[in-house]
Amino acid sequence: MTGLSSKAEDEFGRLLPADVTPSARLFFDQFQRAGLPGRRVESWHYSDLRTKLRAVPEMAHAPDDAARAVARHKLEASERLRLVTVDGFFAPDLSDDISAVAGIDISPVGEAEFFGGAADPMLDLNAAFSRGGFLLDIAVGARIDRVIEIVALTGAETDRSRFGRSLIRLGAGARAEILETRDEGFAGFGDSALFIALGEDAQLDYACRCRETAGVEVQTVNVMLAARATLRAVSLLAQTPFLRRQFFVSLAGEGAELKLAGAVILGRNDHADMTMVVHHNAPACVSREIFKYVLGDHANGVFQGKIVVPPHAQKTDGKMMCRALLLSDEAAMSAKPELEIFADDVACGHGAAVTKLDAQQLFYLETRGVPHIEAEKILIDAFAADVFDALESEVLRDLLRTDLSDLLGEEEPAS
Amino acid sequence: MLEIDNLHVSVAGRKILDGLTLKVEDGQVAAIMGPNGSGKSTLSYVVAGRADYEVQDGTIRLDGVDIMEKSPAERAAMGLFLVFQYPLEIPGVATMTFLKAAMNAQRKARGAAELPTIEFMKQVRATAAKLNISQDMLKRPVNVGFSGGEKKRMEILQMALLEPRFSILDEMDSGLDIDALKTCAEGVNALRGEGRSFLVITHYQRLLNFITADVVHVMSRGRIVKSGGPELALALEASGYAEYAEGAAA
Which residues form the domain of B240? Predict the structure, then answer.
């Protein structure tokens, strides 16, 4: 154990049900040994969960009728094939009957089905507590034309701790477009995990929009790509009181390709931390990471990106870029791009930049009659929206673009 | 239409405009000529409302209304337009989006309804064709990757679409070859008439061969030092600005 265990760790121990499975107990022990991560843990330095999570809310339970009614109220009509979770539990009765669609199979997830994720205390905590997630299987060679949407909702009226854990698998050569909408309300604590495994030559466009995340929330996405598989994953984060969204990616098969991108739009005292560790575990894999932050008021943005290239991963092509636009003097950005390269025939690079809105461009727009606030929105939109181009799916791109301009339209950018 | 009275302006403690007084009548095309550093571009920025200038004294009136406290956008909605000497590139903002935002913002400020998209497209296409602006240019982000001539034609396109009552052309001829200059000048001349005035800022008389000025003012050391008819421009072309620079120094 590292030092004294904090109050929160004890509370988690108290919440652990008496009848936990042996493996859940193992994960919890692992979590306890590492402790709740904080400033002293290098990979969590900028997101001090230890200080942030003083009290642990009661566990969320499998949704009852009342909880389902609360969640149902938030669902809007949609053309998409929808999978709904309530407080992390898959809710088939709120979801579309997705199994009727050829090539898609949906089932409750079993503990044995997850592939090994990264060594991370919050992922261990998730493994210890999670129950009730789903397994989404896209069959070998299947082409799914309709967008599948995962909607994460809450059914709780008060603070709860949520531990969603689900798995998406695409068989060899399968293609799909998945949208994840996380709208679990501002309250409580969340520690979710999503596992994505792509078979050989499979292609997935995955867009996640996170709004109104929990008071303290950690989201972990574990990715495993087989040979020549392609994942294009874009996140749009906004209105996050305290969010850490972390990607652990293994490019496990030769020629796999990853595009990881995101736009982070924060105001108030919002804190969002995008952390990613991309392991090029096979030769000739390509990864591109591009993230844009727009920070107003007292917002705090964090970017940590690490590309790891072991000796055998020759012909690796990895590039990482992070840019932040500061709209106020009180907003802060911490960026830590890293490369760990042990192979000699690679092309890798990274960059980070922090800027302000260009006064000359603003003036130019204003002389054309565009009021100052509008001109700012146009420039902010232009700054952030190009990260969505990482997606091939036009539908998902347009969705995120619309979301972004709605977001910018709602609030006046802080100055 | 535009009345500037005793304008004193500094930038970072350095005096640029030193008691400038100028009047441009309704329907008039007035040229301002002057050597480098005489304050011509500063004048255009201050009239357009750029914030980083320190105005110590003086007034600017447009149609009798004092515009000193008005924002650049408010001035634009009143009918003011500036053709930039160096138009800005704005990556990520589609030209059509920009044009529509500008046209609708001004309509909104004047209490008019938004332009229907079809009508907007029609207007842009027709005006662009007259200025040799291709559909491809309209598809690109604002001014990004445009040549100097293309940028200036885009400025004239904006001017033609926004139909300003008072336009300032800040060295419109810089960076233009003779054909592009003709095209731009034709765009300006097409707008000339009752109810529209122009302030043409230039170093060279050449531009005035294409846009005939009603009056010519000579600017030196931050003020107007001489005014006359088009013949004054021709005289300047022959003799240069030495006389005015020395005169101001004395």
Answer: 2-249
